[in-house]
Amino acid sequence: MSIRHLLWIIVTTTSMSLTAAPLRADEAPSDDVAQLAATIDRHIAAAWETQGVVPAPQADDAEFLRRTYLNIAGRIPPVSEVREFLADTDPNKRRQLVDRLLDHPGYVNHFAHTWRMLMIPEADVDQQAQVLAPSFEGWLRDKFIDNTAYDEMARELIACRISGNEREGAVAYYRAKEVKPESVSSSISRLFLGVQLDCAQCHNHPFAKWQQEEFWGFTAFFAGIEGDRFGSLSDDATSREISLDGSQTLVQARFIDETSPDWSGEARTRDVLADWITSKENPYFARTGANRIWAHFFGVGLVDPPDGFDESNPSTHPELLDDLARSFATHDFDFKFLIRAITASKTYQLSSRRTDDSQDQQRWIGRMPVKGMSPRQLADCLIQATGGFETSNPRNQLLGGRQVDTQIQALFENQRDSNVDPQSTILQALALMNCQFITQQTESASSNTLSAILQSPFLDMDGKIETLYLTTLSRQPREAELSRLRTYVETKAEEPAPRLSFVEAARSLIQPAAAKNNANKEKALADIFWALLNSSEFIFNH
Amino acid sequence: MTRRQKLRPQQSAARHVSRRTLLQATLGCAASAISSNWFPAFAAETADKPRRPGACILLWMSGGPSQIDTFDPKPEHKNGGGRLSIETTVPGIQISENLPQVAKWMKRMAIVRSMSTKEGDHSRGTYVMRTGYRPQGPIQYPAIGALYSKELTNKDADLPGYVSISPFRGFNASAYGPGFLGPRYAPLVVGNGGIVRVNGQPTSSLKVENLNLPGTVDVARHDDRLSILSGLEDDFSGSRPGNAVDGHRTAYKNAIRMMRSESIAAFELDSEPDALKQKYGLTEFGMGCLLARRLVERGVPFIEVSLNNAAGNGGSFGWDTHQENLGRVASLCQVLDPAWATLMEDLDQRGLLDSTTIIWMGEFGRTPRINSNAGRDHFPAAWSSVLAGGGVKGGSIVGQTSPDGMKVVDRPVNAQDFLGTICGCLGIDSQAENISNVGRPISVVDPEAKPIQEVIA
After folding, report:
1. Which range is the signal sequence, renumbered to this chain (chain A) (predicted)?
2. Which of A309, A350, A384, B319 could form a disulfide with B65 if both were Cys (CB 3.0 to 4.6 A apart)?
3. Cα–Cα distance for residue pair A474/A486, rounded to 1 Å
4. Nearest-angstrom CA–CA distance, B288 and B413
């Protein structure tokens, strides 16, 4: 089977599995989605009014498709999907795309990974924690496969049973935090309450509302857990007090709103905490969750940073945040409902193109912010665009990773999905220009995508350039781009092949001119492919 | 002749011109691709006229070295493990017999024997000593390499201001990053910091990854590619201006500038005389120290070289000598001693020692008491670090530990005090502020730090 056939099969099967996916019967009624989308737009527009922001125009189909694929499935769409979507005339196609993507395995993988990065950020920088990440991510994957409600997911994590040598699932989270009560409590308070208690761990901070006693009072809920990353664990479920930062002072478990827990009955300490955190009455929980989903799609939270809920860090759109949180809770904390509503809004569907200076203040969302990708997202995009299925490095096979993953993830570890301020490093630029993976994937002899495009008898030169654009930038080239690049290829084709070795030179004497011309054209197309892969437009989510 | 032409001697000037004209005709933006708004002009510079406001070399001892077996020997006490101490060139100051060559440089060194910190865990200890702060949730503190190089960097340099040689980042990778200063201040990492990496040809690993064009792409073709890329970038950044695109352009600009700069000759260790290489020691650390000197010569303000292990140390990691401490420390010192002493000598002979501050430290010290495996365990309560070279009052000792080494009895020094002292030696304003990722200004070193004024020259 030729590479082209292989690629074709992969491309078509992927797209078929997408289009054939049935809509789920248990979806929230679409009018609720539309209603919340309208609410979003109303609040955002009100803020534009007071801030004097002139919004950008709506994104075209290609822009919407790429962005939505990246945000939900974690990678760019295959070429066939781009062509189909652009040709589709159904007025509801954007909503349908979101529905399809929410049933796509990419959604499960991308959201599990995103939440793993939020919950165990240690794994990105600490090799011991890294060992624990796959099993935790597996647990998250199960949650997203089942579309487990956000409150239920939080409850399972907070109240998780800890004992013996258990390492799988939610327990891995506690191990990643070194089973230290103070590490777990500061992580839980940031994750589910949006509150950074950490700074109060050692001393009372002049800027922060939270004081040392509050930190240790909250930490006392985890006083019973004991063990270390890889040893045996124990949990005294009734333990409710802890010594303040190693001192003699004992602090009792209490909530950060200064209410005291009800210990009646035979309540396990962390069950009581989970009840309080996930309660629909908890003012922090729904807001933090809704704000995180918002930040995932816009790169910037209504409260930003999303775990910095603090009186000194107010929401840009407090009423919108309230409405999002209320809807999220009313719909039983269904992630998919919130995602449908956000992506259905006109706000989400704004172009990232700047049409007015007032759009530069990203927090008012006058245009879609340009965001960095997570390292895994970028690796997946490179693999998608190049058709490069990497298993060549035995060391990486041993670690269960693909070579490009390992390389790219190490190089781009500073980037985050929800980062509107991504900054590139020299080593990243060097890798994308010169690394072995990119080199192989931009040479006709070793690149699946490139060789498939070069060998396609049904594509003329314009068609080839067009396909390169579709596979990398998920859009058609503009007329000016096409003519510029067409001329480039033609000019290159005229040139003698540079730097011939003696053997090559000898061969070129007996080679027909057409073949020589063809080789130059292939090189020119490879150059275009290389430049597209190195472009900001490819590297960023916009 | 321009720098660019020098890079491709195989092409005649005539050919060069015709290609350029051709591209100009075809792409319109081709000429600007080379001289343009965001690709650098490749002027020859720097190697022969270094501009040096002062430099810092951090010798980082991964795993936490034993103070007793290095700079705070206890020959009289059983905690000394039977190790002898030797005289240094400063009367009255003795260090461990493991470091005979370093002992000759005591006049240029200040030993701090009263380090006292709170973190006895590799990850947290690494973070504290390399950033000055305990890990605190969302605040991404920068490594001191990023912080100091930002203060010292020459903005026109071809090479980044912070080069990290063979870092082992497994204990805590964020302690090696630029934190809230952003990727612009990220270290240029060379060497992979693998655990065991001592062999006959250690130089091969100390290269910048992906610095060279792949074999199938020559400079002319790379220029062609860049001209296409330049067109794409102009379109995209014109319509979507902002930090993301700016950062991308800056990174490419600096990467290309470095690829085509003569400064990268710093990495060509082969051009050094064999005798000198032998003197440094044919180890990754030894070659790292030699590379550090070459980078200092080319104006790089902050270089760190990690000593991660020595040959024959089995499964033990670096200075984390929980077993067979005495033998393992001795073999690590056989790597450390010649490399460090030669680095001092080499810098001195080139007139660079007075403006280059050298720091020796790890994340914590090790227990004075020897454990049942003949090892020493983690010990942050009383340990040693060393300052040397530029800005340092040599021949001095700061602080003192008890005869058994169990506690500091004079002048305790914490991480902030020590890092503040380095600022003093380097002439950096330790209270210069940066805006953190949570929007709060954070000074290079905590205002409460008490730098050791008596060792700042």
Report:
1. 1-20
2. B319
3. 19
4. 29
pLDDT digits (tens), chain B, 457 positions: 333 333 333 333 333 434 444 444 444 443 333 334 444 443 333 333 333 468 999 999 999 999 999 999 999 999 999 889 999 999 999 999 999 999 999 999 999 999 999 999 898 899 999 999 988 766 889 999 999 999 997 777 889 999 999 888 878 888 988 888 887 888 898 886 543 334 444 444 688 888 999 998 999 999 999 999 999 999 999 999 988 888 899 899 989 999 999 999 999 998 999 999 999 998 889 999 999 999 999 999 999 999 988 877 765 678 999 989 999 999 999 999 999 999 999 999 999 999 999 999 999 999 999 998 899 999 999 999 999 999 999 999 999 999 999 999 999 999 999 999 999 999 999 999 998 877 789 999 999 999 999 999 9
Tell me: cis bond preceding A305? Omega within 30 of 0 counts: yes
Chain A residues close to B236, C-beta within 8 Å: 535-537
Q: What single DSSP character describes residue A32?
A: H
Candidate from B214, B232, B242 with C-beta closest to A439: B214
> Angle, to 10 degrees, between the axis of helix A426-434 and the axis of helix B243-259?
70
The answer to whether residue A484 scores a pLDDT higher than 50 is yes
CA distance B186 to chain A (A): 7
- How far away is chain B from the Cα of A489, in angstroms, using its nearest Cα? 9
Phi/psi for B14 (5° steps) reads -60, -45
| Calpha distance A284→A290 (Å, rounded) | 10
B182 CB near a chain A CB, below 8 Å?
yes
ipTM for the complex?
A: 0.86
Asked whether B182 and A423 are in contact (CB, 8 A), the reply is yes
Question: Would an 8 Å CB–CB cutoff place B209 in contact with chain A?
Answer: yes
Cross-chain residue pair B243–A499, CB shorter than 8 Å: no
CB–CB contact A427 B189 (8 Å)? yes
Sorted by where each begins, the domain ranges of chain A are 375-541
What is the DSSP-derived secondary structure letter of residue B264?
G
Listed by number, the residues of chain B in 18-77 with a beta carbon closer than 8 Å to a beta carbon of chain A are 22-23, 25-28
What does the block give as tokens for A74? 């974690």
Nearest of A345, A444, A346 to residue A387 by alpha carbon = A444
If you measure CA to CA, which chain B residue comes closest to A500? B10
Structure tokens at B317: 């990691």
Nearest-Å Rg of the Cα atoms of chain B is 24
Contact B72, B384 (CB under 8 A): yes
A68 Cβ contact partners less than 8 Å away, ≥ 6 residues apart: A94, A97, A98, A101, A343
Q: Do A424 and B169 touch (CB under 8 A)?
A: no
The CA-CA-CA angle for residues A112, A115, A118, to 5°, reads 155
A510 C-beta neighbours (distance < 10 Å), count: 6
